[in-house]
Specification:
alpha/beta; Glutaredoxin; 3 domains; 5-stranded mixed sheet; two-stranded antiparallel sheet
């Protein structure tokens, strides 16, 4: 049985406390473009299904929230971003059961569409209400479309209890909460060693702990006999960790026609900024990014933007209005972005710093960006 994996601890700590009224009624540009795009999935059913399964896993909160808790505005924007992704996942599920109606997985895709629409609406996305109603409304206990095992699953109940127990430690800080949650999950793992939800919870934990511990957990998930989408995500996490200290292969023609190749930028410190115009946290970071660029560009600091937008015109207008002089990668694929997929980027903003030798040094560069760049520029 395939079960949808969700970041239950993050949801409880970050999303649940926020009222749905924090959202504007209008949808972000990303979603509008997605709905207009007819083919979100590959042509082969197996490849398309793999894409649907990946879409079922929403992003984890930024790691820097572990050290410095998010502001209400940051939490609201993350919630909005998660709602958008749930809507995109629903679109992909709908496309699968429409295009591959005779596939035995089509029924599951219909259920996934309905569940993800309910998630999007539950997180405040009013633009998905009509689609949810057309799909049959939000699933609930006793609904024939909800698997009985999911409606009264002992493990699900125990995981929720583990979350509540961990939440009691919130006054002691996020690391203590995560440690308490992991302790409970490890106890449940002994009782349910083969359940995918256990590894989903562990993957969430891996996204909230220090690198070496995250690496150990990711390796554990890769070696486990669990859902393919989950082992692939863990493998991508390991691959990204291994990128530290090595060159990053990025080469493209920017939207303004400039040729960009990180291999030709040795001697510079380069920020690789994974972002989108529709991403609230990304836009909120822009003043800090511009300040660092204005201060340090003449000393050898460069920025390369990797845009997750799907509308080129919207990107070009935004860049011109905000006076962003650095080159932007754009392929119109949104979350299917070439470099987003290659580097396993499942939440934005994400900022990488490449040093003067051309090696990746930092994958979480948002905190004290200017200070980090200055230190790297001073290196021989």
């Amino acid at each position: 049985m395939t079960r949808r994996l969700i970041p239950i601890l993050a949801a409880a700590m970050i999303l649940a406390p926020l009222p749905t009224t924090v959202f504007a009624a209008e949808a972000p540009a990303k979603e509008t473009a997605t709905e207009a795009k007819k083919n979100l999935l590959p042509d082969k059913a197996d490849d398309a299904w793999a894409e649907v399964r990946k879409a079922m896993n929403p992003p984890l909160p930024p790691k820097e929230w572990n050290q410095k808790g998010p502001t209400p505005e940051e939490r609201a924007e993350f919630k909005k971003q998660t709602a958008t992704l749930a809507g995109v996942a629903a679109d992909k599920a709908k496309e699968f059961h429409t295009r591959f109606a005779d596939d035995p997985r089509a029924a599951k895709a219909k259920d996934d569409e309905r569940r993800m629409l309910a998630t999007a609406v539950g997180l405040g996305d009013e633009t998905r209400e009509a689609a949810l109603k057309a799909a049959g409304g939000a699933p609930g206990a006793g609904d024939p479309q909800v698997e009985p095992a999911q409606a009264s699953d002992p493990l699900a109940q125990k995981l929720q209890a583990a979350v509540k127990k961990a939440q009691e430690k919130q006054s002691e800080g996020t690391p203590v909460v995560v440690a308490a949650f992991e302790k409970s999950v490890r106890e449940l793992q002994k009782e349910y060693p083969d359940r995918s939800e256990i590894y989903g919870a562990l993957f969430e934990i891996a996204g909230m702990v220090e690198p070496e511990k995250a690496r150990a957990i990711a390796k554990e998930i890769v070696a486990a006999k669990t859902e393919t989408s989950l082992t692939e995500q863990a493998a991508a996490m390991l691959k990204n960790m291994d990128r530290i200290g090595n060159p990053v292969a990025i080469a493209f023609t920017a939207v303004d026609g400039r040729k960009v190749d990180l291999a030709d930028m040795k001697g510079k410190v380069v920020l690789v900024d994974f972002w989108a115009t529709w991403c609230g946290p990304c836009v909120a970071e822009l003043p800090h990014v511009k300040a660092a660029y204005d201060k340090l560009h003449d000393k050898g600091f460069e920025i390369v933007g990797i845009s997750f937008d799907q509308e080129k015109d919207a990107l070009e207008k935004f860049v011109a209005k905000r006076k962003m002089p650095w080159p932007q990668f754009f392929d119109g694929e949104g979350w299917g972005n070439k470099y987003g997929k290659e580097f396993g980027i499942n939440s934005i903003p994400r900022m990488w710093l490449v040093d003067k030798k051309g090696n990746l040094r930092d994958q979480e560069a948002r905190e004290d960006l200017a200070g980090k760049v200055e230190k790297m520029l001073a290196e021989k």
